């Protein structure tokens, strides 16, 4: 199994422009969070780097993903009250958890770089559903 990409490798492979002037690394001063550090001086108005659209995460990406489409299908079989629990926000959080958990998922390097933040989401008592983390999305979703 190949080693997962670092955030910087992922950004480079995706075609991000401008990474030669910055360093992406863990901050030793800011509680071990990921940071972007300039390797040269920038002027007001300079473009530091450009990230390709496919690296931007949002509700639309989650809704058209395998898990998003599956959850939307599940919602059709639920009562109106139950289907309202499957909000776009919940689908987005579940998509992020699934992508972070799978080393081969496209968004994994970005979501893994968030570190502890996504782990808190995964253990959040506010989730109405508990997603069973399996590669097969036909596995059941159970109420928490």
Annotation field: number of helices: 7
Describe the global form. elongated
Counted beta strands: 4
Beta-strand proportion: 5-15%
Main β-sheet: number of strands, strand sense, barrel status? 2 strands, antiparallel
Mean pLDDT score, rounded? 77
Low-confidence stretches: 125-144
Order of helices and strands: HEEHHHHHHEE
Radius of gyration: 18 Å
Looking across the biggest beta sheet, what order are the strands in? 1-2
Class computed from helices, strands and strand pairing:
alpha+beta
Percent of residues in helices: 25-40%
Q: What is the domain total for the residues?
A: 1
Q: In whole angstroms, how far apart are the ends?
A: 33 Å
What does the model show?
The model is unreliable at about 125-144 (pLDDT under 50). The strands form 2 sheets. This protein has a two-stranded antiparallel ribbon. It has a two-stranded antiparallel ribbon with strand order 3-4. It has one domain. A hairpin with a 7-residue loop joins β1 and β2 (about 35-40). The chain has helices at about 5-15, 60-65, 65-75, 80-85, 90-100, 110-115, 115-120, and strands at about 20-25, 35-40, 130, 140-144. The longest helix has 14 residues, at about 90-100. It has about 140 residues and is α+β, with helices and mostly antiparallel strands.
